[in-house]
Amino acid sequence: MAVATREYLLFIGGEATEPASGDLSDLTEPATGEPLARAALAGEQDVDRAVEAARSALAGDWGKTPGTERARLLHALADAIAANRKELAELEARNVGKAISSVKAELHQAVENFRYYGSAIATIGGRANPIGGSLLFYSLKEPVGVAGQIVPWNYPLMMATWKLAPALAAGCSVVLKPDPQTPLTAIRLAELATEVGFPAGALNVVPGDGPTTGAYLVRHPGVDKVAFTGSTRTGGEIMRLASDPVKRVTLELGGKSPNLLFADADLASAVPSSAWAIYYAAGQSCEARSRLLVESSIYDDVVSQMSDFAGKVKVGDPLDPETQMGSLISSTHREKVHGFVERGAGEGAEVVAGGAVPDGAGAFYPPTVVAAPNESEIAQEEVFGPVVTVIPFEDEKDAIRIANDVKYGLMATVWTGDPARGHRIAARIKSGTVGINMPYTAFPGIPFGGYKQSGFGRELALETLDLYLETKSIVVSTGARPINPFGL
Dihedral through CA 190, CA 196, CA 197, CA 199, nearest 10? Predict the structure, then answer.
């Protein structure tokens, strides 16, 4: 069925399900404004049904599925994503407005996420050792229970796999809430999971509004753990909602990531890579390097080069394979992004490139370069658009000071010809990930997460499995003599 004529329902208990309210929203393509599909919106009754299905699965078929079978299912789902990658890529590009060239790379990682955790299941196990005398200790690893997972609109499919793969590997059942603007690939992913054999209720998808449906999911008594990716403000609210029942929480939040460029760096790599690091997802990425810190001796040259590269980025139809940057998620979000640029200019920042809302259909915004001091709003707050702020520094000490002078700490990149300097700075920057002379950020198997207000917990790695597991310690007496502590 063509995407524009299809209705995407909730996915609960292994099947497409009508929402209790009957509410379906009309989705449009951000890049064209044309109708895309109709998608169900979940309410509290639907969350209740999804949590009940997840708990039933945990007590039934899914809870009885051994690790080897979970591994097989994860690999089977990876195969299904790969087999349906053309459909999924088009669906994602049209729903998000993102260039399909970027979406294809995200799909590759989505496949690898399931493969990685399908293999990592073999690492889930306890340990055993004698305590001394006749006492023996051993531990068991058990799934934490039902995981409520909330993913944002900027990476609907890939971020869903970041959450689902480790949770399912650990043996948890899941209630996933995608953003109501971008639910299509998450629903399709749940359909594929059922097709390859995941038991009913192991994976449930309930798109809905954050302050209502999302909040209800977080505080639901049947949810044992919450994992969230999104804004820092919403993450703080989730912590408050989860505090009374003392639920486990993992938060991957905002960023204002620095890109440090020293005069001894290879500018032929550093400058175009710096352009990619902010523009590849139209800046709508938590780890986008939106603060370009440049050694003062090459500052003017780098600003000029960044301006040139910004003008060369191919912006256009997300489905065109030559497009390098698509649209923003909506015209409303574009207004928010443009507001940052206008206020920056009003405060004395220089808009070197871009910075104007283009004519025509779609929520497009040009790659923008702004020269502004580090204390300005546009250099401190997360713009979440294709806007880079260029800031000069004097020396290594000054660069580290400026890099750390924000409330976030998710990602950083260092460009230098001095290997010792690269490692020295990486150790002093308060970021969850630091790249040295390369712009890429997230790889299956490498922990991804933040310092400070960028959240806590890690994604993509073996450490992530522990976030979905309980450790049970068992101590047993192996001695032949009776135990009589009081000597009675």
Answer: -10
- Among residues 92, 106, 112, 286, the one annotated as catalytic is 286
Question: Which of 407, 408, 402, 404 lies closest to 390 in space, CA to CA?
Answer: 402
172 tagged catalytic:
no
pLDDT band at 319 (very low <50, low <70, confident <90, very high): very high
Cβ atoms of residues 282 and 276 within 8 Å: no
479 burial via Cβ count (<10 Å: 0-12, 13-18, 19+): exposed
Burial 185-218 (b: 16+ CB within 10 A, else e): bbbbbbbbbbebebbbbbbbbbbbbbeebbbbbb
**Catalytic residue, candidates 29, 92, 252, 295:** 252
pTM above 0.85, yes or no: yes
In a 3-state reduction of DSSP, which class is residue 339? Answer: helix
Query: How far, in Å, CA of 414 to CA of 429, rounded?
Result: 10
Other Cβ atoms closer than 10 A to 221: 8
The CATH class of 258-436 is alpha beta
Task: Work out the number of other CB atoms within 10 angstroms of the CB of residue 297.
Answer: 11
Q: Return the H-helix or E-strand segment holding 83.
A: helix 67-83
Which tokens sit at 275? 């352009």
Q: What is the pLDDT of residues 288-305, one digit of tens each?
A: 999 999 999 999 999 999
216: helix, strand or coil? helix
pLDDT at 2 over 60: no
- Closest among 209, 182, 159 to 41, alpha carbons compared: 209
For residue 220, the model assigns a pLDDT of 98
Residue 103 has which token pair?
């979406």
List alpha helices for 121-231, DSSP H.
156-170, 184-196, 215-219
Alpha carbons 15 and 344: distance in angstroms, whole number: 49
* DSSP designation for 222: T
Q: How far apart are CA 408 and CA 254, in angstroms?
A: 7
What mean pLDDT is predicted for residues 112-141?
Answer: 93
Beta carbons of 365 and 344 less than 8 angstroms apart: no
- How far is residue 39 from each of residues 3, 184, 410, 466, measured CA to CA in Å? 11, 8, 33, 34
C-beta separation of 410 from 390 below 8 A: no
Q: Per the CATH hierarchy, to which homologous superfamily does domain 3-253+454-473 belong?
A: Aldehyde Dehydrogenase; Chain A, domain 1 (3.40.605.10)
Is 252 labeled as catalytic in the residue annotation? yes
> Where do the domains of the chain lie?
3-253+454-473, 258-436
